[in-house]
Design goal:
The chain is α/β, with parallel strands linked by helices. It has one domain (2-452): TIM Barrel (Alpha-Beta Barrel). It is built from 16 helices and 13 strands. It has helices at 3-9, 29-32, 45-50, 68-81, 93-96, 106-121, 137-140, 150-165, 178-186, 198-222, 244-259, 262-265, 289-292, 343-353, 382-400, 443-452, and strands at 22-26, 86-90, 125-131, 171-176, 227-239, 299-312, 321-323, 360-365, 374-375, 378-379, 405-411, 430-433, 438-441. The protein has an 8-stranded parallel beta barrel with strand order 1-2-3-4-5-6-8-11, surrounded by 6 helices. A two-stranded antiparallel ribbon has the order 9-10. A hairpin with an 8-residue loop joins β6 (299-312) and β7. α9 packs antiparallel against α10 (198-222) and α14 runs parallel beside α15 (382-400). 51% of the residues are buried. Bound molecules: 1-deoxynojirimycin (NOJ).
Length: 457
Amino acid sequence: MVKEEQEKKLSLKREDFGKDFKWGVSTAAYQIEGSHQADGKGPSIWDIFTAKRGKIYQAHNGNIACDFYNKYEEDLYLMKDLNIHNFRFSISWSRVIPAGVGVPNPEGIDFYNKLIDKCLALDIEPWVTLYHWDLPAALEQKGGWTNREIISWFKDYVTLCVQCFGDRVKNWMVLNEPLVFVGAGYFLGVHAPGKRGMKNFLPAIHHAALCQAEGARIIKQYYPLAKVGTTFSCSFIEPSRPIQKDIMAAQRIDALVNRLFIEPALGMGYPVEDLKFLKKMEKYQLPGDKALLQFDFDFIGVQNYTREIIKHSWFVPYIKARNIKAEKRKVPITAMKWEIYPDSIYQMLKKFNSYKKVRDIYVTENGAAFKDIIEDGRINDKRRTNYLKGYLKAVLQAKKEGMNVKGYFVWSFTDNFEWAEGFRPRFGLVHVDYQTQKRTIKASGKWYSNFLRNQVK
Ligand code: NOJ
């Protein structure tokens, strides 16, 4: 049977995923909270970066965003109404420690206490990401992720979070997509803090990888029974043509995109064989680092949206490879111009599941941006629903084949600030009118809610 037929045959019922499967939605502090200067919050690199000219689509910023800081209760009630009982959000470091190190901010801590308590009161399980890209600006002035001191700054921050919230939070994620924040922020310069080049990229990689494990150790030290994970962006990588040059190019991109941060955590070291430029990272490594990079995570968060088709290219420095844009391949795409390719998530679950030391896997992000049209107060976003169904079928296939996938979180609950793309791409199950902050449940949100009806948490 060909794959498409096979896929069609897999109908979608929540029960098929098992009663313990966790269903949720994902968000991140800077993308939803707003209130960027409220109650003693310090600036983050995203406050600084969005204020620079020409960095963000139409000079948008997260100063107000979805006003989640003020509307969290309303949003949590809506979440509960939609039968969603697992909520992934992140803590803003500069809200709880305004200068990044030193004196904590009681009002910032209070916000997360109230948020967590409200979740629990509504029977919503909090899943907390410690770092979703908003480094305190004061730390960037000292070099940010390029400065090895970040390990001690980060450890202090994690310690505070665990001391304050660890009695109620049972599921933690240390980092969100390290490759993206070091790649876009410290190599390409298209995300905060806007740094470029190998001299920034290489130390940032190593320090992020060290923090990933060090942060996890701290949580376990305080709460041995807590579930500690970290999350990775990943894309299914395929060569453009079945020729050696493209196959090798795809292998290099795969090492960069899918292996760079998980393999050192598993004790396998960095994928230096495939990425020769990583040899230069030795300069930033100290004796004993290989052991420090390792941590036996309870779970890995897999975040997948699309696949990439790769071609060899002499012109691209270091990696000698480039991707062929989805637009040029005449394939279905989202508003991010990412190819819609459900098999990608199946392939990624297979890949992460094939590491013997990987325990549980959660899809901590998956979703799609489309141009939403409001008609008579309704948003009939069929394409988003179809996207979610297609990818969920692929997740179910992976699960049926015995892969250890334990949950799925849609990106995102509401529309929000999509980094350099501003508010233009809308990923939400719930529409946000940024003028009025009105929330409107999209058809996809209603579909998810129906799908989850009567779920056991
Ligand atoms: C990855 C990131 O974690 C999240 O912040 C972003 O908005 C989504 N994926 C969509 O691009």
